């Protein structure tokens, strides 16, 4: 068996994950709509042999327009442009199951997977918040459980669509005038509670079969959904213990759902703030905190905690009588994380905003490259992570620093690949693709996952069992 | 005033517009899902200084899967990839107003417009056919008039979304910590019959303000829609007289709708089949006709004419008692064109299929490069066209032949540009963009159209009147 390797995803967000990053002299406040900025970031990540890069998304303009970069290039569009500017790195786009139709979205991901040579991934979100709902004809967001029920049906339909062409449905017999084999086309004929989708997709089955399925909700509904569908999970965890518990829980839920727990990769988010000494790293962090506008932070925190404006005092603690998670219809797991962080460390509102300003609840590792690598190795080897979602506080400099200084240490320790592999190097046999001459690994191969079997095809007797991811 | 120039659009469709093109020895039957094929086509069109290229679309798998290439890369995705492989050419994607939501689609077009540096166009379709409807939870297609009513509301909302950021909404004052100016954001707050869209777009206003608006329906509803919204119109016309009538009618409807009739460009589709002699051109055409499978053609014609299977005889004429156009819920103007073509020229079903096999109702010009250029010049100078939608029967060879042999003649005659211009060369003042240093023309500038004013901004007193396109 090949040695277990760390998986790294670069979470790209305009000038960086720290809310004040755009105010630094080095930052371009228009970066969020500049293709060149993202091409540069993608190439840095590829230099660091990251598995993938990732774009978050919500179909609404955030209300803090005045305070920080708002708006963005639509993720699937931007990642398609990045596909042509990169060679190896996986391309994970966020898209909502609440505000898309399965036929349209399945087509777009299949198209990106073909164009990128098998590098597409889908971060499946249900999209919390009334602002998004009101852009799609609704008065309020659908209830949490309702969103997840729709997401599950969405996935079932999308999987049928992606399987609606068998891999060898194209015959291309010019002499006979026969282009395709009708018997290898499988219309979903789906009629469910949320969707009716009769016909087959109008895109052939893509190199990966379908995009890598990624998920990031850590609520009870979110974990159940991940256990059933997800192949990679982004999560916000503040302590090693919490991360270990989450990791063990998710692997066990996945096994209970009848899937191989190795086929779900857990990637906690970390915000690395690096300096050549610990003092320098801390000074870098202080520069960012000095640029936070705290009045804005208070307003956002009140909104997250669903408190009336003016409730929180900057140098006080959170109120003791906050509502329970179950009463929250928005981003549940984020709510709980923030409340628990504040209580565990007895943070004032000001301190809490400083902590959240960097990673919005994700763990900030501040230190030397060795210290950051140590923390990564500890989490990776102690059952807390299969890899990490790297969220630089400032972009591009923070990603450059990670690739220049932390990646070499991880490679020296044998934790991270030193170059991208050609095909199927991580013990994964690429079903049906031997001999197609595809020169590079797909995203799913890079994560050590099998190419999914087609649900409409019965494996030939004697062929290896094909795991349904 | 600058000399009036011809506008050329390249309509790209896998191995070509002739239904039998995929069977030729030169053709790649997998071309429809190969990015390299489309990159090659786009670069040929750019060598020919075409204004734009265009991809048709329908959200369903065509039923003649066995007979000819089916499925395709989703147009917005493919054009985004082509944006990075080209420098000048416009990128026009078809997208449906019946099966998209305005917020999602407006974002994607704004993103493509930004990524391409102002080269995006939208071919607005209402999508005929029950097959598409059944992929989106409906049992049958919405009625023709209903589809157009939804399209009009869709456009109104999309225009509000594209105008929801003023061009200078981003302040980027790092010292003050102020990124955006809230007063320059204009949420649509739209509540209509078909859509509710409350909030502003989450993409800034793009280089062109919004994509070039293109339309291709030539029914009564289609022309009324075009007169109100379209800046370019694709149309199928079989005779000079019909094309002149359509041209005059559309310009007059546009003026009656309160718009400048120069701000709608009429582009009939033509299928050029070229040979160095007329006999060679005709022989090239014959090769294609020899590859048609006529039994398939009969079935498709019966479907278009809404006749029971087995009604048509290959060597007979069309029945005399076909239903009137007004009873057709599908592609109305195509229906009438086909019936009139067959009757005018007394074509047998076999002959009609041969004619439709090339351009599906668009005019085929078969001849030498001089003859093709003569026909183009005649239509252009006699009030039948502002340019042409070039639909090569075979791709890439037919596009190569047009660019190598017809384009030089058009240039010698002063009808076509010899190179792409930098900025604003065709008498168009680019509103508000002087001094931004944008090096290339936008698609709208290339078509000689003004950048649209923002509906939420009152022009300053004394500034030139800003035409609402």
TrEMBL record, chains A, B:
It comes from the Bacteria. Residues 422-431 have a biased composition (Low complexity). Residues 422-441 are annotated as: Disordered. InterPro entries: Diverse_substr_monoxygenases, Luciferase-like_dom, Luciferase-like_sf, NTA_MOA. The keyword Manganese does not apply. Keywords: Flavoprotein, FMN, Monooxygenase, Oxidoreductase. Residues 30-384 form the Luciferase-like domain. Belongs to the NtaA/SnaA/DszA monooxygenase family. NCBIfam families: FMN_nitrolo. This is LLM class flavin-dependent oxidoreductase.
């Amino acid at each position: 068996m090949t040695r277990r390797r760390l998986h790294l995803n670069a979470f790209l967000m305009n000038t960086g994950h720290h809310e004040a990053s755009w105010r630094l002299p080095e930052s371009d406040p228009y970066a969020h709509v500049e293709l060149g900025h993202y091409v540069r970031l993608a190439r840095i990540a590829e230099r660091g042999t990251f598995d993938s890069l990732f774009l978050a998304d919500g179909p609404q303009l955030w209300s803090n327009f005045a305070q920080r970069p708002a708006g963005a290039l639509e993720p699937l569009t931007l990642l398609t442009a990045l596909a042509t500017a990169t060679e190896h790195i996986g391309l994970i786009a966020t898209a909502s199951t609440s505000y898309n139709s399965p036929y349209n979205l399945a087509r777009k991901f299949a198209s990106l997977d073909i164009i990128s040579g098998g590098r597409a991934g889908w971060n499946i979100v249900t999209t919390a918040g009334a602002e998004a709902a009101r852009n799609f004809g609704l008065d309020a967001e659908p209830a949490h459980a309702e969103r997840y029920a729709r997401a599950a049906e969405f996935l079932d339909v999308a999987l049928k669509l992606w399987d609606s062409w068998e891999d060898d449905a194209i015959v291309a017999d010019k002499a006979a005038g026969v282009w395709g084999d009708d018997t290898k086309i499988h219309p979903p004929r789906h009629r469910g509670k949320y969707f009716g989708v009769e016909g087959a997709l109008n895109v052939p089955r893509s190199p990966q079969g379908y995009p890598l399925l990624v998920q990031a909700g850590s609520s009870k509904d979110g974990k159940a959904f991940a256990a059933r569908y997800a192949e990679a999970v982004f999560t916000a965890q503040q302590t090693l213990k919490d991360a270990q518990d989450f990791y063990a829980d998710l692997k066990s839920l996945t096994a209970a759902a009848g899937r191989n727990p190795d086929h779900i990769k857990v990637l906690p988010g970390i915000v690395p703030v690096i300096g050549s000494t610990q003092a320098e790293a801390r000074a870098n962090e202080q520069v960012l905190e000095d640029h936070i506008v705290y009045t804005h932070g208070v307003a956002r925190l009140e909104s997250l905690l669903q408190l009336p404006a003016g409730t929180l005092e900057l140098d006080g603690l959170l109120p003791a009588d906050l509502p329970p998670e179950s009463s929250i219809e928005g981003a549940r797991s984020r709510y709980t994380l923030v409340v628990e962080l504040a209580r565990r460390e007895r943070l004032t509102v000001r301190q809490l905003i400083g902590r959240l300003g960097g990673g919005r609840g994700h763990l900030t590792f501040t230190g030397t490259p060795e210290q950051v690598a140590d923390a990564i190795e500890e989490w990776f080897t102690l059952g807390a992570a299969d890899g990490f979602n790297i969220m630089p506080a400032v972009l591009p400099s923070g990603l450059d620093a990670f690739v220049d200084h932390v990646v070499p240490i991880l490679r020296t320790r044998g934790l991270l690949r030193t170059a991208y592999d050609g095909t199927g190097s991580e013990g994964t046999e690429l079903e049906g693709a031997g001999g197609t001459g595809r020169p590079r690994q797909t995203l799913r191969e890079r994560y050590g996952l099998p190419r999914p079997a087609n649900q409409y095809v019965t494996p030939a007797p004697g062929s290896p069992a094909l795991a349904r991811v």
